[in-house]
Sequence to fold (379 residues):
Amino acid sequence: MSQKDTKINPNQPVTYKKHKKPRILVAPLDWGLGHASRCIPIIRELLELDCEVWLAGEGIQGELLKTEFPELPFLHLPGYTIHYSKTKKGLPWKIIRQSRKLLAAFQSENMWLKKVVPEYSFDAIISDNRFGLFHNTIPSVFITHQLLIKTFAGKWTEKILQKINYKYINRFTECWVPDIETENSLSGELSHPDKKPEIPVRYIGLLSRFEKKEAVIQQNHLLIILSGPEPQRTILEEKIIKEVSNYNGTATIVRGLPGSTTLIPSTNMIQIFNHLPAIKLNEEMLKAEYVISRSGYSTVMDIMTLQKKSILIPTPGQTEQEYLARYYRKNNMAYIAGQKDFSLVNSIEKAKQFPYHLPAINPGKKLHTVMQQFLSTLK
Fold:
């Protein structure tokens, strides 16, 4: 089937078509690239288990999935298009002001799902943090590592948000958590709260699109990965471009803009790419002495899978990333730098003195086992 987006005809008669393989719809959230990138190992596993996989999304998340899986059918599904604030203090209020827009998006995508399920005869849905993609007649999985949502306002607001969070999660059939259930957790109390949703919660292990291989680390070579919602992605990019011009070593900068035609020129020492496919990014990360990125959970899963030393810059005001940054610093998993006064040279000097303790990551077969169990319920 062509990679061109499949169009939905609302006037087409609703019929369920029989097909031999389980037909699964996978749709990630459109906040940054992390939700889409961690769906890559999910999709690979589904294909390995002989499923027919369809994808849904738009924007740079859609472009990422189309690049990785050009042979899979793709449905256009509008994202939440949430915008971040330029300042740390302004972000919580910016999100609150968009809450009505979010609720409308949940309702809209649920109506969309009710149309496409009978039209394309899906057997199940896997939603990465898209709250409206639950269905009453076929199994639907919700993927999240945030069973607890951190706030600046204290425990009482976290309890309120958790109640709202669970109200939506409990509409799904199962909740899959991309973390380890016991020791070596990468998301701390975010995925291990005292109270869990009412539906089955299954810890599927860490999700990474990368594979650990033998590689020669190039001294003084950096891999810098930019990502996240605007305008914060661009704010950090401008700082990085300025800082790297004074760096004595080599660097590869990946801008996190798949599908973009706007280019920043490279030099002999600094290579700049809008996007790199998973295989190439895997190679770049393996050979880098340090990886510099946001403290987004999906990126960290990739970094820890490859056992790389990293310098993480949390998005200002993004409570999840700021909590994870504190958690990684406390456990010596990563050196943490602030965005406001970021200095590349100073950060690297301090990272060289940092007592990194990278947890041993055993890929295991947890995802495979959970997915086999889930697929068995479709027969």
